[in-house]
Specification:
106 residues; mainly alpha; 73% helix; rod-shaped
Length: 106
C-alpha cells in the first residue's frame, strides 16, 4: 500500500528463538491441560458429599416406606417398619462404601 518500511526487520533463524518458541508452545499446552474442564478439588468433594447424603437419605427413607407398606399389608406393626429401616441403613452404607472405594471420575 505504501512504500514505508516495516517497523522491525525480520529476524533471521536463530537457535535461541526456536528453543524459546518450543518452550512457549509447551507452556501453552500445559496451561491448556491444567485449565481443562475436569472435576477436581472442591467440585469433586461437593459432588461426593451430595452423593453420600442422597444414598443415606434414600436408603433410610426407602426402607421406612417399604417397611411401613409391608406392615400395612401384613398387619405386623411395628416389625416390618423396623426391619425395613435396618435394611435401608445397611443398603445405604453399602452404597456409600462402594462409592468411596471407586476411583474418582475424570
Amino acid at each position: 500500500m505504501s512504500d514505508e518500511k516495516p517497523a522491525r526487520e525480520p529476524i533471521g533463524e536463530d537457535a535461541r528463538i526456536d528453543a524459546l518458541e518450543g518452550r512457549l508452545k509447551a507452556a501453552r499446552e500445559r496451561e491448556e491441560q491444567r485449565n481443562s474442564p475436569t472435576i477436581r478439588g472442591a467440585d469433586a468433594s461437593y459432588r461426593s458429599g451430595n452423593r453420600v447424603l442422597a444414598d443415606l437419605l434414600g436408603g433410610v427413607l426407602g426402607g421406612l416406606l417399604l417397611g411401613w407398606l409391608f406392615d400395612w399389608l401384613a398387619s405386623t406393626a411395628p416389625w416390618g417398619l423396623l426391619v425395613g429401616l435396618a435394611l435401608g441403613i445397611v443398603v445405604a452404607f453399602r452404597n456409600i462404601i462402594r462409592s468411596a472405594n471407586r476411583p474418582p471420575d475424570r
